[in-house]
From TrEMBL:
Range of residues in the leader sequence: none
Pfam family, one: TerB
SUPFAM superfamilies: TerB-like
Name of the protein: Co-chaperone DjlA N-terminal domain-containing protein
Stored Gene3D superfamilies: TerB-like
Top-rank lineage group of the source organism: Bacteria
High-level lineage: Bacteria, Pseudomonadati, Pseudomonadota, Alphaproteobacteria, Rhodobacterales
Natural source organism: Paracoccus sphaerophysae
UniProt domain Co-chaperone DjlA N-terminal: residue ranges: 26-142
Transmembrane spans: none
Amino acid sequence: MFRNLLPRLFGEDPPASGLSADDAEMAVAALLVRIARADHRYHDEERARIDALLAQRTRLSPGAAADRRAAAEMLEAEAPDTVRFTRAVKERIPLDQRNAVISAMWEIALADGHRSADEDSAVRLAAKLLGVNDVDSALARQDVERSLAAGQD
């Protein structure tokens, strides 16, 4: 799966048949990894949250979600830029569902309890490339912050 996905995502020409829904979900997973790595500190809390989000998004078992994250880590390391991932997501995921992707990114950015400028910038760039406006991204972040604060009580 991983080796076949690289040319589809990073090739000069997109495949004639477009990307599959699985390809788009792998691109989402790689975006989540990219957000977690943006501050150069990739913590266990972030890995666990990525696994949980992947399991929730696509109804994967915990083991399958961890496997997808591991593949996404390799894919993200090979990616020249964020644009390729967001293009795959935009192609297969409707705008109203992309807001959920932005919320997931904020969950990852805030998972370690530390909000960094690098992660903020990475989420903002991804949101822009996904066609999600700044207001909707900020509202998603605020919802995640409230949810995390409520979970600490």
